[in-house]
Structure formats: structure tokens, C-alpha cells
Write a structure and sequence with these properties.
- It is a single chain.
- Helix content is about 35%, strand content about 15%.
- It is α/β, with parallel strands linked by helices and about 450 residues long.
- The protein has three domains: about 15-125, Fumarate Reductase Iron-sulfur Protein, Chain B, domain 2 (Orthogonal Bundle), CATH 1.10.1060.10; about 140-235 and about 395-460, FAD/NAD(P)-binding domain (3-Layer(bba) Sandwich); about 235-390, FAD/NAD(P)-binding domain, CATH 3.50.50.
- The strands form four sheets. The chain has a five-stranded parallel β-sheet with strand order 3-2-1-4-16, sandwiched between helices. Strands 6-14-7-8-9 form a five-stranded parallel β-sheet. Strands 10, 11, 12 and 13 form a four-stranded antiparallel β-sheet that branches.
- The longest helix is centred in the C-terminal third of the chain and has 21 residues, at about 440-460.
- The N and C termini lie far apart (about 55 Å).
């Protein structure tokens, strides 16, 4: 317990703020072994209880400590189809590491860093290639959406010998992993490699296939024995204040999708964003998406990039690492302020934002204290670009084409929280389309639970 936690090597902030190269550099072999040796190998490992997909953390960490990376990878991939992704973007401090015994007295084992280390090493060395099951079931399952929930579900079902086809509406696979998370946090080649692993299990992928337009759920169910819906929640929410129509006001979804998926930062891009060089940019929100947007704005040349958040830093839902990285790179933070109007010129371009100061009142249903406006506290701030990162809602396209699929008042799909069973027999759902916006690993956990339920459903209908 006297051994200090190993810190992840990182790129220098002054350099990385101007490029899209990955910030975290990964552990060396020596650092990984040192960190793994800190594990107490608890008799009742609470870290596993904190992992939404149930990875045998104590087991794989012990293998790392012994230097047996192939065995460590085998342990991880039994439960996690995307270890290199999860090791990079999951909020381990709130989940597995938050449940680590060492977190109570010191610093938790760096479980996420070790998971990333193992996944990267075995991938680069070509070890433990996934192999398709020896026997096929003859049953067919359609998975709608290639985000984390869909990929986790597809992987588990393919390992059970079912023929799985994943339908993706966009032209690239990965869902939020490719359109929502910037390259400097999650390189696209990592996502592609994880998806290739699923291909080797026999999973078939079809892009440019928006279910609800190209095909309906009823049609899918007529061609398959079961369907899993994991389309996420990609419809942006706005603030509903005057001036949101002005040129220069983006949703974080649009901004990040243009940058991440359509390479809008490259010269001659088909879908460019407003030139940010030398401009003042504000991002409204305090979550990981807001951090991604503001740090991306810096990389696009913004002279000043600021976070505007209506609560205090204590209430911010963003990962502590992402907040620290943003500060190191030069992002400004303004707390207890809320936009009440975007201000434009006569030609419809954004030129400023009117802010109202806030104070914290009583806690709301989520346990966080509610922000309350302070009367007479408004001020105008000059800005060139505003990016709204105020959360997401489900896309209504699927709902419109499948009225028999019951939804909640929030637009999410009604589904059993354990099995993912929806109001349509044989149709299951999980991830953000059920819970609303959440984390990658929680979506994967939902995909895995649904896969187990689909397996039981297929067995009962054989």
C-alpha cells in the first residue's frame, strides 16, 4: 500500500492544444507491471461490482503483474468487446476505480490505464485474435446502431454462434465513438480495430442503412429471429433562448460530428465549420461533450475558448481528467452563469451572448443543487462562436416508423431495465435510446444484458 500510483505519460499541453494527436501516451511495460503489483488481490474484489460489464479485474491485473499479457487479454475480452476504447474514455473513477479498496485510503489501481495497456499491446503484437465459434445456431439477429451498446450486444451474440448483422445509419461504423469523441481522446484507428475484431467473430456490418427509412423494425423482425435497438440519443437539445438561429451558434453534436466524422478541419472539407482562427468561442455545458467541444475549438485555432456552466465546478459531470486537461491546454472556465440571449448583427451573425449570474438553491431530483437566477445580474459578453452542449434526446425517426414501439414521455424507448425487452416481442433495446445520454460502458452493459436476454428468447422460441 506504500507503492504510489503510476501516472499516465501525456503530451505537453502547450503542444497538444494545437494538434489532434492522442493526449495520453499509454503505459510502458515497466510502468504497467509496477501499477499491477499495487493490486491487493482482495478476497471480495469490489472493483468488479463497479464494472458495468463485469470484467474480472482482479484476474487480468494479476496476469499483467506476472507479465502474461495474452492471458490478461483473454480474461478481459470474455466480458468486454471494446477494451481499448473503454480503457480510454470510460469514467473509471466513478465505476471500477471508484469501488477499489485502495481508493478509500490512497489512489485506486489505475484499472483503465491497465486495460488500455493490455488491449494496445496484444493488438499491436497480433496476439489473441478473436475466432468465430465452431458451431453456428442458424438463428439471425439484427442489431440497429453500431455504437457501444450495439457492438457489445453483437459481440456476445456472435460468440454464441448466432448470425448477427449490424445496421448503421451513417457511412462510418462506431456511432458516438467516431462522431462524438475527438481523435485526441480516442483515435479512430482504435475503434476500427475493435470493430475488425467483431468482424472476425462473424459479425456483418451494413452502413448507410437508417432503420426507419431504408427499412422498418417490422421488416427487420420479419427477416430475423430477434432485433436489438441501440441507436443512442443523437438529437441535440438547445437552450430555447432568443438568438439560437444566428450564424455561429452550433450544437455540440453538429460541431463534433463535422470535425470527427467529416474531417471539417481539413482544407477543402465538404462540410466545413466557421473559421475559428483568432476567434472567441464559448461552450455552454459542463459534461464530457462540452470538454470535447471546447478543447477541439482550441485545436482549430480559437484565440479564447471558454466553458460557461450554470453551476459550480463541484457539480460538473465531466471527468476530472478531462477538466484537468482542458485547464492545462488554456481553456477558461466561468461558473454560475447562464446564457439568456445570443446577440447578433444585422446580417444574422453571432456577435455576443447575454449572461445571467446564478446561485445554487435547494437540491433537485438528481441530488445536485438547482441553479437560481440572480435578478439584475445580466451582462453582455462578446463572442464569435457559441457551442451548446446541453444534452441530447432520441431521434424521432424510429418512433415515427414504428408506432407500436412504446416510448416514454422523454422520447426514449420503454424497455425492461434488466432484459431490454420492449413492447414488441422479439425486439430489445438498450443504451442511450433507453436511458438517455450516459456513458460508453453503461451502454455496453445494457447491450450485454440484452444479448443474454436475446439468447434466452431464441432458446425459448427454437
Amino acid at each position: 500500500m506504500a507503492m504510489p500510483r503510476v501516472d499516465m505519460p501525456e503530451r505537453d499541453p502547450t503542444a497538444r492544444a494545437h494538434n489532434f494527436e492522442e493526449v495520453n501516451l499509454g503505459l510502458t511495460d515497466q510502468l504497467a507491471v509496477l501499477e499491477a503489483q499495487r493490486c491487493l488481490q482482495c478476497r471480495h474484489p469490489t472493483c468488479i461490482e463497479g464494472c458495468p460489464v463485469g470484467v474480472r479485474i482482479d484476474d487480468f491485473v494479476a496476469r499483467v503483474a506476472d507479465g502474461d499479457l495474452e492471458a490478461a487479454a483473454t480474461v478481459i475480452t470474455v466480458d468486454n468487446a471494446l477494451p481499448a476504447v473503454c480503457g480510454r474514455v470510460c469514467p473509471q473513477e466513478q465505476q471500477c476505480e471508484g469501488a477499489c479498496v485502495l481508493a478509500k485510503k490512497d489512489r485506486a489501481i489505475a484499472i483503465g490505464h491497465l486495460e488500455r495497456f493490455v488491449a494496445d499491446r496484444v493488438r499491436n503484437a497480433g496476439l489473441v485474435p478473436p475466432t468465430p465459434p465452431a458451431q453456428r445456431s442458424g438463428r439471425r439477429v439484427a442489431v440497429v446502431g453500431s455504437g457501444p451498446a450495439g457492438l457489445a450486444c453483437a459481440g456476445d451474440l456472435a460468440r454464441r454462434g448466432h448470425d448477427v448483422t449490424v445496421f448503421e445509419a451513417l457511412h462510418e461504423l462506431g456511432g458516438v465513438l467516431v462522431y462524438g469523441i475527438p481523435e485526441y481522446r480516442l483515435p479512430k484507428e482504435i475503434v476500427a480495430a475493435e470493430i475488425d475484431g467483431l468482424r472476425s467473430l462473424g459479425v456483418d456490418f451494413q452502413t448507410n442503412a437508417p432503420i426507419g427509412l431504408a427499412e422498418t423494425l417490422d421488416e427487420l423482425l420479419g427477416e430475423h429471429d430477434a432485433v436489438f435497438v441501440g441507436v443512442g440519443a443523437g438529437l441535440p437539445r438547445f437552450l430555447d433562448v432568443p438568438g439560437e438561429h444566428l450564424v455561429g451558434v452550433y450544437s455540440a453534436n453538429e460541431f463534433l460530428t463535422r470535425i470527427n466524422l467529416m474531417r471539417a478541419y481539413l482544407p477543402g472539407a465538404d462540410t466545413p465549420v466557421y473559421d475559428l482562427a483568432g476567434k472567441s468561442v464559448v461552450v455552454i455545458g459542463g459534461g464530457n461533450t462540452a470538454m470535447d467541444a471546447v478543447r477541439t475549438a482550441l485545436r482549430l485555432g480559437a484565440e479564447r475558448a471558454s466553458i460557461l456552466y450554470r453551476r459550480t465546478e463541484v457539480e460538473m459531470p465531466a471527468r476530472l481528467e478531462e477538466v484537468r486537461h482542458a485547464r492545462e491546454e488554456g481553456v477558461d472556465f466561468r461558473f454560475l452563469v447562464d446564457p439568456v440571449e445570443f446577440l447578433g448583427d444585422d446580417e444574422g451573425w453571432l456577435r455576443g451572448v447575454r449572461l445571467q449570474s446564478m446561485e445554487l438553491g435547494e437540491p433537485g431530483p438528481d441530488g445536485r443543487r438547482r441553479p437560481v437566477p440572480i435578478e439584475g445580474s445580466e451582462e453582455g459578453v462578446r463572442v464569435d462562436v457559441a457551442i451548446v452542449a446541453a444534452g441530447n434526446a432520441p431521434n424521432p425517426m424510429l418512433r415515427a416508423s414504428s408506432p407500436q414501439l412504446r416510448h416514454t414521455s422523454r422520447g426514449t424507448i420503454e424497455a425492461d431495465p434488466v432484459t431490454g425487452q420492449t413492447s414488441i416481442p422479439g425486439v430489445f433495446a438498450g443504451g442511450d435510446i433507453v436511458t438517455g445520454g450516459a456513458t460508453v460502458i453503461l451502454a455496453m452493459g445494457a447491450g450485454r444484458r440484452a444479448a443474454a436476454a436475446i439468447e434466452e428468447y431464441l432458446t425459448s422460441t427454437a
